[in-house]
Amino acid sequence: MSGEYDVVVIGGGNAAFCAALSAQENGAKVLVLEAAPKEEAGGNSSFTAGAMRVAYNGVDDLSKLMPDLTEEEKANTDFGTYTEDQFFDDMGRVTQYRTNPDLAELLVRRSFDTLLWMRSKGVRFVPIYGRQAFKVDGKFKFWGGLTVEAWGGGPGLVEALTDSAGKRGIDIWYESRAVSLIHDDDGVHGVKVKRGGKTIPVLSKSVVIASGGFEANSEWRTRYLGPGWDLAKVRGSRFNMGDGIRMALEIGAQPYGNWSGCHAVGWERNAPEFGDLAVGDGFQKHSYPFGIMVNATGRRFVDEGADFRNYTYAKYGRVILEQPGQFAWQIFDSKVTHLLRDEYRIRQVTRVTADTLEELAAKLDDVNAEAALAEIKAYNAAVRQDIPFNPNVKDGRGTEGLAVKKSNWANTIDQPPYEAYAVTCGITFTFGGLRVSQEAAVLDMEGKPIPGLFAAGELVGGLFYFNYPGGTGLTSGAVFGKIAGASAVKAAQKAA
Questions:
Q1: How, if at all, do strands 292-294 and 351-354 pair?
Q2: Where is the FAD-dependent oxidoreductase 2 FAD-binding domain (predicted)?
């Protein structure tokens, strides 16, 4: 197969297809290797809601991304602004300023243009009304810097990118797992692929690895994230085993980033071990800022209102995993149940309802009911009543005098009917990965580019530490995918 492809892309999600489309538009003949069968393709991208964090300076910018916005929508919605400086500040703040500033700046500065480019490739964007804007005084107001999602969510995004690749002559091999890189002292020259029960060489002038992190690999999770992580449920693809990272490390790539960190959320306690495409991201439970969470001892253990959920949900999964029995219950009363996200209304949910707090506490499986009831009453007594509740802003309506405070959106739980939802930890993706340059070239242990090898997506190390601003993963995959594809073509042209 020597010389058949200029660029081989390992992976089949958002980052991989952005790399493939970028390489193709720069004149390359491209092959995409997807380990999954077609019906499970798309990596973690297929399991997302399709939200993409992007810098914009107002509704005029958003109209370029979403030309279908009507004048009525514009008049009835406060889209606000989310400047590059705000995006960069969020990247710093939530990662405790450990994010690589060069990579973060690249992500932020290219976010808008990259989404415009994706639109030119057939991806449609729409406002995230259902999850990111509440209606107050007759007007929707977006909050938390997250406004845009791909039409059709993650599955719609993957479908649009896959269709675009097919129309542009990009070859896609399903059920084709890359097992190792073909390389010598001059660099990378292709991939060994297991396909149809045989391992075959696929030669190319350059390779882009975009095959996700190691979140589906229970052995690696335990090794790098720590004890107990083998028990976490996997939100997404069962195929993200860390193969791309392993292949690169085997030829001397430099590991980089927060290898003990990951994106992990509150997830349906009785969900399957791996993601279910029929449910998608519906197992997540992200309306906790409007209620409280208690563990098996009946105690609260986290500030549910510390920040907008965009900035806390990706780290609270770890906290839930650390609780006795690796679970918690989210509790709400009827004052706020209309604010619960759609994912609380799916059929596959562990929910209890009650007309009294005593009855509710008794129904919480595996929880000390007496302690839980006392905890709810203590919380109710601590809620400040002098500040009005407003879900669109950090309203400062908190608690006073509790060991575990609630900083915002604190409402007494005293108006039946009551609802509670059981959650555990669901891991999304791992933060550790490979060190790359600003051209998305994979660097070796001396910090030099490995000729012919590029990377994008979850396995780019150094962007996320400890936590994550919601919607940044798909944007990062697209930005670095586009860069990697173009860089891979330049490398291929040099190798020709």
A1: unpaired
A2: 6-471
CATH number at 330 reads 3.90.700.10
Q: How many domains does the chain have?
A: 2
Residue 494's contacts (CB-CB under 8 Å, 6 or more residues apart) are none
Amino acid type, 307: D
Give tens-digit pLDDT for 332-364. Answer: 999 999 999 999 999 999 999 999 999 999 999
Integer Cα distance of 153 and 284 in angstroms: 15
Domain shared by 10 and 49, yes or no: yes
Give, in degrees to the nearest 5, the angle at Cα 425 between 424 and 431: 175
Residues 482 and 386 in one domain: no
Quick check: 193 and 200 in contact, CB under 8 A?
Answer: yes
Residue 230 within a domain: no
Q: Which domain holds residue 467?
A: 5-214+431-495
pTM of the model: 0.92
Query: How deeply is 466 buried, as exposed, middle or buried, from its count of CB atoms within 10 A (0-12, 13-18, 19+)?
Result: middle
Q: Which tokens in the block code for residue 421?
A: 């939802």
3-class state of residue 143 by DSSP: coil
N residues, the chain: 496
What per-residue confidence (pLDDT) applies to 2? 39
